[in-house]
Amino acid sequence: MIRKISTIKTNYSEEELIVLLRQKNEAGFHHLYDNYSGALYGVILRIVQSKEYTEEIIQDVFVKIWNSIHQYDALKGRFYTWMINIARNTAIDYLKSKSFQNQLKNQPLPDFVYENAELTTTNNSDFIGFNKVLESLESDKQELIDLAYYQGFTQSEISEKLNMPLGTVKTKMRNALLKLKDLLKDYQ
Amino acid sequence: MDSKEYISSGILESYILGHASPEEAGILECVMKNNAEVKAAYEEAQKTFELLATAQAVTPPNDLKSKIWDKIQLEQKVEDEKPVIPLNSVEPKLETQQIGQEIRVEKNKSWKNFAVAATVLFLVSIVANLYWMSNQNEMKNELAVLKSDKQSQNLAMQNLEQKLKITSNPNMLKIVLAGVEKHPESNAVVYWDKTSKDVYLTANSLPKAPEGMQYQLWAIADGKPVSAGMYTDDKDAKIALANIPNAQAFAITLEKEGGSEIPTMENMYVMGGV
């Protein structure tokens, strides 16, 4: 249901936001950025593990969201999930792209190691909280989420990599998600 | 496979992460349209991934927002200028970026984008075809079910219309037959056409007649019972049981199939005076 949009309003519902974005409205961009940039930035950072690349990729991600908002279909899934997937796919594609592989050769150490220290100035508590959340998952579940969510491995690729039957991978993924849901309750 | 098994098979996670095969995705999309449980589980799974993203949010650098907005506006400008200089649509954007080396990268990128777009379009069409093929049989079956549903609805409708014609006809004399002492719960209604003298009966509240037995309607004319026909479900308020020129009362008894010459009084269910 779309409520009436008043001009001074700064907080929009998801439906209103989509309408604004489709109209290429600048207020829509501000709301989009203010509400989702942190989460999308975090997703990308987790995947490419470099602030420098994350900053580059997130720009593409927002441009993609802005340009393909007409392709978003509410019947097929949630808006936030749609954006997360754009961020994931863009970041994973970036990782797989040749130019990045080449750049990587000149950068032997992923700078994610000291990324954490830098982050303390920004969103410290959230980030650490998240780490704890993943840590409280059993290690096999952690690995599954990491491979599927952050590295873009398909279930059959995971099955091959971990030498585990495909059916087991699928049900384990389901169980991992249920456990995660439980652990993430506090963030709701 | 029931809903719960289907949900726990991990298909939802696979679909959300974009790893489901076109067939799997097609099936899931179809199932979700018809199954609220699967749909709800899908929503939940999405929310979990969203919570994960929210929980790991990291504040981006301060200048990022304006950088992105500039980029969007630049693209917008290029879009707007397109009709004026259609052959050089990429150029205006590049002029503003100055550095020569970057121009080559940008161009490469945009060609790469076109190639990716073309590949994506191609894949999408394959997916659509696969989805379409796998769904065709299902659609045919659904169509057949719908057709037969429609047919039986039409029949039911015709049935109702015919009954309504009888029961709402002002020329009909309506005689309510009440349950006798042994069957206080039973009742039935006789509709007696005042001009044609045809007798209709609605008796679907009577208990189902046992095997080999049938309800028989009697017209009591001057104290003498005359058979007014055998009742069957399909005649109910629709087909005349008999033509009775004269009667003071009607009654129904349970008789052997095909009816009796004289009513079995101990098997009388309902009775009512005109």
TrEMBL record, chain A:
Query: Taxonomic classification, please?
Result: Bacteria, Pseudomonadati, Bacteroidota, Flavobacteriia, Flavobacteriales
Short name of any one Pfam family annotated for the protein: Sigma70_r2
Task: Quote the PANTHER family the UniProt record gives.
Answer: RNA POLYMERASE ECF-TYPE SIGMA FACTO, RNA POLYMERASE SIGMA FACTOR SIGZ
Keyword Chaperone in annotation: no
State the family it belongs to. Belongs to the sigma-70 factor family. ECF subfamily.
Question: What is the protein name given in its UniProt record?
Answer: RNA polymerase sigma-70 factor, ECF subfamily
| Keyword annotations of the record | DNA-binding, Sigma factor, Transcription, Transcription regulation
Write one Gene Ontology MF term: DNA binding
